[in-house]
């Protein structure tokens, strides 16, 4: 593990330039897709649970204390511990990882959608009621579009965190780009470890940028600042 | 849960907890020491602020394990590797909150301090910092709780504090150490968070009685 930095970088580039490393069941493409799969499934399940709760609480104005503090509570829960704990309970499989990642994804989405819904100007709500909108119409056509930027900000935070943390899936024997990190560490192959670290970092940053774009896209034109 | 294991391993558990607290304290300290001058620069030259926020935002999205490992060629499997990585995360959170806090100080207050003859440094230390303290403390709380979770991941590169207990649990297929590590790490996060809230309360007597 005492390789010098230039030698490592050269090794890294050489590794990535080798087409054999990109194909097959341990190839970059397969591992990358596994990683993205964990992220998508967990974020979607998390959103399916978190968004109705956050939006519902925000719409009705109840449960604010819980909704706002959930993100802080969630931060204190170490995902690494959750993955191993569920793994010891249910054994090898994708479930421990998905459970841990969903638990990680929920809090920011609840908090942000709650804050987004609460942030809708009461005058606008009243105006919507005054023009004869039903509560459902008001929710779908007025409050949700206004809250959408913040709701998406929550989804973005969750997605990036989940993408980062999916790296730990490899520790309990699953795939994803974390495999290169864990396997490389195990056999002291620093080049492979660096490959994993660089690829995971790129994927996380790409998620951040992708969701930032998505956030802009779902923002109603009248609400954009630029 | 196996109470016998806990009883026979109190030393290990205590050592892990102490390392956890050490890594937390040092990374917060270094994070503050670096973030503060950077924040002052960003306030002095506002044009730097937007790009530096973008950079810190992107850096924050880099997975912790990847970051720790990217540092390994430089610092090896040492405590320094964990500490540099953890400090970087605290830095990103603290920088933003220090800048927001100091920028939130009303210009009228700054003018008043100047009119009273406060020098630039005294104004910063005696007027602007105390007023910005609630926002800065909010950042310190987020950084502290986030880092307590991240420290457990550094178990994979030979440090880890309470995260070592996760590894022990995993390798022995034994939930007791895992639950101990988990509960202690959550309790530590809650305790530190409450302590910081108390510290803020103590430092800002003029805020007491207001709902923040």
From TrEMBL, chain A:
<dbReference type="InterPro" id="IPR000515">
    <property type="entry name" value="MetI-like"/>
</dbReference>
<feature type="transmembrane region" description="Helical">
    <location>
        <begin position="162"/>
        <end position="182"/>
    </location>
</feature>
<dbReference type="InterPro" id="IPR051204">
    <property type="entry name" value="ABC_transp_perm/SBD"/>
</dbReference>
<dbReference type="GO" id="GO:0055085">
    <property type="term" value="P:transmembrane transport"/>
</dbReference>
<feature type="transmembrane region" description="Helical">
    <location>
        <begin position="35"/>
        <end position="58"/>
    </location>
</feature>
<dbReference type="GO" id="GO:0031460">
    <property type="term" value="P:glycine betaine transport"/>
</dbReference>
<keyword id="KW-1133">Transmembrane helix</keyword>
<feature type="transmembrane region" description="Helical">
    <location>
        <begin position="79"/>
        <end position="106"/>
    </location>
</feature>
<dbReference type="GO" id="GO:0005886">
    <property type="term" value="C:plasma membrane"/>
</dbReference>
<feature type="transmembrane region" description="Helical">
    <location>
        <begin position="194"/>
        <end position="214"/>
    </location>
</feature>
<comment type="similarity">
    <text>Belongs to the binding-protein-dependent transport system permease family.</text>
</comment>
<dbReference type="Pfam" id="PF00528">
    <property type="entry name" value="BPD_transp_1"/>
</dbReference>
<protein>
    <submittedName>
        <fullName>Osmoprotectant transport system permease protein</fullName>
    </submittedName>
</protein>
<keyword id="KW-0813">Transport</keyword>
<keyword id="KW-0812">Transmembrane</keyword>
<feature type="domain" description="ABC transmembrane type-1">
    <location>
        <begin position="32"/>
        <end position="211"/>
    </location>
</feature>
<dbReference type="InterPro" id="IPR035906">
    <property type="entry name" value="MetI-like_sf"/>
</dbReference>
<keyword id="KW-0472">Membrane</keyword>
From TrEMBL, chain B:
<keyword id="KW-1133">Transmembrane helix</keyword>
<feature type="transmembrane region" description="Helical">
    <location>
        <begin position="131"/>
        <end position="158"/>
    </location>
</feature>
<feature type="domain" description="ABC transmembrane type-1">
    <location>
        <begin position="17"/>
        <end position="196"/>
    </location>
</feature>
<feature type="transmembrane region" description="Helical">
    <location>
        <begin position="77"/>
        <end position="95"/>
    </location>
</feature>
<dbReference type="InterPro" id="IPR051204">
    <property type="entry name" value="ABC_transp_perm/SBD"/>
</dbReference>
<keyword id="KW-0813">Transport</keyword>
<protein>
    <submittedName>
        <fullName>Osmoprotectant transport system permease protein</fullName>
    </submittedName>
</protein>
<feature type="transmembrane region" description="Helical">
    <location>
        <begin position="178"/>
        <end position="203"/>
    </location>
</feature>
<dbReference type="InterPro" id="IPR035906">
    <property type="entry name" value="MetI-like_sf"/>
</dbReference>
<dbReference type="GO" id="GO:0055085">
    <property type="term" value="P:transmembrane transport"/>
</dbReference>
<comment type="similarity">
    <text>Belongs to the binding-protein-dependent transport system permease family.</text>
</comment>
<keyword id="KW-0812">Transmembrane</keyword>
<feature type="transmembrane region" description="Helical">
    <location>
        <begin position="48"/>
        <end position="71"/>
    </location>
</feature>
<feature type="transmembrane region" description="Helical">
    <location>
        <begin position="20"/>
        <end position="41"/>
    </location>
</feature>
<dbReference type="GO" id="GO:0005886">
    <property type="term" value="C:plasma membrane"/>
</dbReference>
<dbReference type="InterPro" id="IPR000515">
    <property type="entry name" value="MetI-like"/>
</dbReference>
<keyword id="KW-0472">Membrane</keyword>
<dbReference type="GO" id="GO:0031460">
    <property type="term" value="P:glycine betaine transport"/>
</dbReference>
<dbReference type="Pfam" id="PF00528">
    <property type="entry name" value="BPD_transp_1"/>
</dbReference>
């Amino acid at each position: 593990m005492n390789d010098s930095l230039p030698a490592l970088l050269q090794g890294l580039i050489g590794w990535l330039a080798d087409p054999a490393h990109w194909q097959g069941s341990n190839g970059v493409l397969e591992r990358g897709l596994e990683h993205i799969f964990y992220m998508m499934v967990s974020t979607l399940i998390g959103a399916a649970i978190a968004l109705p709760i956050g939006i519902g609480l925000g719409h009705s104005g109840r449960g604010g204390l819980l909704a706002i503090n959930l993100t802080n509570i969630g931060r204190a829960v170490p995902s690494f511990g959750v993955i191993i704990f569920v793994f010891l309970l249910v054994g090898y499989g994708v479930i421990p990882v998905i459970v841990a990642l969903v638990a990680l994804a929920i809090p920011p989405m609840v908090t942000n959608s709650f804050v987004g819904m609460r942030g809708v100007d009461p005058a606008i709500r009243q105006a919507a009621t005054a023009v004869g909108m039903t509560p459902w119409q008001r929710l779908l056509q007025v409050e949700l579009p206004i809250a959408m930027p913040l709701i998406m900000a929550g989804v973005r935070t969750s997605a990036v965190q989940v993408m980062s943390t999916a790296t730990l899936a490899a520790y309990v024997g699953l795939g994803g780009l974390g495999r290169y990190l864990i396997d490389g560490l195990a056999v002291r192959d620093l080049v492979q470890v660096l490959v994993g670290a660089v690829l995971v970092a790129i994927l996380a940053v790409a998620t951040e940028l992708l969701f930032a774009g998505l956030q802009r896209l779902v923002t109603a034109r009248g609400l954009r600042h630029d | 849960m196996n109470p016998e294991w806990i009883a026979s391993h109190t030393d290990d558990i205590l050592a892990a907890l102490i390392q956890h607290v050490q890594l937390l304290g040092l990374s917060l300290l270094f994070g503050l020491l670096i973030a503060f001058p950077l924040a002052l620069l960003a306030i002095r030259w506002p044009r730097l602020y937007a790009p530096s926020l973008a950079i810190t935002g992107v850096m924050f999205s880099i997975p912790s394990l990847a970051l720790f490992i990217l540092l390994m060629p430089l610092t090896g499997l040492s405590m320094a590797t964990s500490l540099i990585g953890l400090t970087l995360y605290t830095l990103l959170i603290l920088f933003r909150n220090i800048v927001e806090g100091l920028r939130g100080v009303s210009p009228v207050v700054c003018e008043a301090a100047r009119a009273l003859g406060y020098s630039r440094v005294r104004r910063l230390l005696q007027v602007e910092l105390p007023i910005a303290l609630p926002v800065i403390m909010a950042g310190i709380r987020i950084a502290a709780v986030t880092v307590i979770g991240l420290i457990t991941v550094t178990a994979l590169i030979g440090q880890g504090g309470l995260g070592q207990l996760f590894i022990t649990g995993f390798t022995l297929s034994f939930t007791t150490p895992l639950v101990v590590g988990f509960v202690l790490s959550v309790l530590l996060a809650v305790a530190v968070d409450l302590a910081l809230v108390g510290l803020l309360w103590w430092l800002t007597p003029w805020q007491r009685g207001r709902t923040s």
